[in-house]
Amino acid sequence: MLRHAIAPLRRFTKASHDVVRHPGLSSDAKILLLYVQGLPECESARPLGDHAAKLGMKTRAYQRAKELLEACGYLHVWRWQGEGGRWSTDQLLSNVTLTREEASRLRNGAPPEEPPNERTPTVGEPDQRIVGAPPKEEREKNLPHPPSEAPDAAAPAPEGEPEAELAAAERVLLSLRHSNRQLLIGVREARGLADAAAEWLRRGIPAAELRHALTTGLPADGIRSAVGFLRYRLLHKLPAAPEAPARAPHGLVICEGPGEDHVFRPVGDETHCGPCRIGPASRPRPPARVVSWRTLLQEGVPGA
After folding, report:
1. Domain range for 222
2. What angle do CA 139, 141, 146 make, to 5 degrees?
């Protein structure tokens, strides 16, 4: 078999080999998945059945493709009852397999836990362009998710620098919009909340955990005020301050008091043990002498 392939420079959809070569997916399921992944944002909110109808799929073929996508973890469906008893359906179609927990996190607006990168990146860049690959400027232009202009929110703040903690907290607040558009706030609003967010960092909470606490479990009916919602969570979910570490006990030292050498464990900077500081009153009394009545008669007791 001969093959001729040229990578397109525009109007293309990136397809993983895991999807194209998946043995458990039919051709209809693969085409439907790739078709939806290439849709613009304005059309992605429509039901999956509408897109299948545009592709010319019959009802039975669509139901079969839908069942395979659900069984393989690419499609997740939720049915819920809203106000007035009206039922609604939410659908999440992903180009990677997701567990039910991971899909629920995405549905609630939280970022999924990224798997570790198993591939070691190659040092340096190739000197020549690979045959069939688009130029570098075209690849940057066609990125599905362009890099954020906000600084890295997960960068740790230097210890003991309040201004650095405030800056790190402000970066976390400004980056929340990447997890959920409802949490979009302005720079001035972020500065107003930065002190409350910085208190989390001062208590040893990493920036990633702070972001997770602010973006998970969002209200089902939406957020009316992003600033009010974030302020409430920052104040009411603030973790307890870490306990101060217990002071290590002092070691044993030799008492400078009279008598034979003996050691004790001081509480502060004392040089004498407790009995030596109290004096002879603390020393044990000698045992009382026990004398029998015969001895008393022999020695003679006055008045006997």
Report:
1. 162-236
2. 100
